[in-house]
Amino acid sequence: MSNALAIATVTQTLQNVLTEALVLANVSSAVVTAVRPDDPTRLPTTGVNIFLYQVAPNTALRNSDLPTRSADGTLLQRPQAALDLFYLLTFYGDDTRLEQQRLLGAITLALHAQPWLRNADIVTAEATPFLAGADLSAQSERVRFRPVSFSLEELSKLWSFLLKTDYVLSAAYVASVVLIDTSDPVPAPALPVLTPQLLTMPFQPPVVTSIAAAQGPPDLILPGTQIVLTGINLLGPDSTATSVLVAGTALTPSAASATQLTVTLPAGVPAGTQTAQVSQLALLGSPPVAHAGGVQSVPAPFTLLPLIRRSGSPPVYQITRQTGVGSPPADTVTVVLDPAVQAGQRAILALRPQAAGARPTLFDATLFTEGTATATAPTNTLIFPIGIPPAGTYFVQVIVDRAESPLDTDGSLHPSGPTVIF
């Protein structure tokens, strides 16, 4: 870790290291400064100047501290900024004695022979009064230097645009990496693992091949009845970890095997096309407990048929005909349906003449949005204006989102009801 004084500590340490390296140049009175290269009043007559001209995020470590906090705001680890520091070294001296070049050679050799800041040098720099409290020496990563090679265009921009002064002999280095941490309290370490447990599961996802009614004709799936899902790998590692998702509700199978699951449809599932999906939870821990993260099947479609309600003894369909309703007078048919038609669903009344091959007549309900024929609120009671139909007996069906209520059949499998008489 290191605090906000880390950048200044790197500069001060580099200045101290380069001061020791000047001995190799055999240039008397040479010093190392850290001012702007376009400030002639403070630049050395003979020596080296250090100028920090750019700071950039370190690409390798810039996101290594993420996430710093959990969803509830608890500190997970201290936020840490990872930076690269770009330094421009400029050299000054007597041109006739090639002092600038001798100084450049000494500095280049020193940074090549030891391209990192030694911990002892950092500790010496931290003793500087204005760096009191700096703790760069405690950083886990070493600060290393590598030369930067400028193209002629980049060098021209640096001196003419950024510094706006005459060019002098110079070299650039990047110091990487500098880590700056916050002073937040260190989070408590994670609890130790007492008993490691490894769960391996073969990748055999459940596959649903068909869905049918448990009793009666397989294609007549009615509200509140049982359905049977047939497929492969349907049963997970434990029956309690296997469920069937229908209309957002997780259902526990009443009978389960690897090839079949039986569930009872809950109340409130809308009529029309629905899907069933097998979900198998992972059993983890000791004793095993079901956890999310298991496998699921691809949703398999089935059609839930609406059912015209019956009541009384013997049971009679709740279909009511009214005559002379409204202006001009017309007949209406009221049907009580299960399940309730939900908002956004379309319901249509089909009146089928008893004559073989006769085409049905279709009517939209009046409780729906005009022009769209879709329900605006859940309802079980549907009113259909039908005008004045020809006299006769008609079979009654209600179609909800293309799912037709079933007709009763006699012993010869001919339709027998429900009916309405006009």
Q: Decide which structural class fits the backbone.
A: mainly beta
Number of individual domains: 3
**How do the strands line up in the largest sheet?**
1-2-3-5-4
Number of helices: 4
Shape summary: elongated
- Strand content range: 35-45%
Mean pLDDT figure: 87
Low-pLDDT segments, ≥5 res: 368-372
The major beta sheet can be summarized as: 5 strands, mixed
Q: What percent of residues adopt helix (DSSP H or I)?
A: 10-25%
Descriptive key words:
422 residues; mainly beta; Immunoglobulin-like; 3 domains; 5-stranded antiparallel sheet; 4 helices
Describe the structure.
With 422 residues, this protein is mostly beta strands. The chain has 3 domains: 6-181, no CATH class; 207-304, Immunoglobulins (Immunoglobulin-like); 307-421, Immunoglobulin-like (Sandwich). It has 4 helices and 27 strands. A 5-stranded mixed β-sheet has the order 1-2-3-5-4. Strands 8, 9, 12, 13 and 14 form a 5-stranded antiparallel β-sheet that branches. The termini are far apart. Residues 368-372 have low confidence and may be disordered.
Which secondary structure elements does this structure contain, and how are they paired or packed?
Blueprint: H1 6-21, E1 31-33, E2 47-57, E3 80-92, H2 99-113, H3 119-126, E4 144-148, H4 152-163, E5 170-181, E6 207-213, E7 226-232, E8 242-246, E9 249-251, E10 255-256, E11 260-264, E12 272-284, E13 289-296, E14 300-304, E15 307-308, E16 310-311, E17 316-317, E18 319-325, E19 330-341, E20 347-353, E21 361-364, E22 379-387, E23 393-400, E24 403-404, E25 408-409, E26 415-417, E27 419-421
Parallel strand pairs: 1-2
Antiparallel strand pairs: 2-3, 3-5, 4-5, 6-7, 7-11, 8-9, 8-12, 10-11, 12-13, 12-14, 15-19, 16-17, 18-19, 19-22, 20-21, 20-23, 23-24, 23-27, 25-26
Helix pairs in contact: 1-3
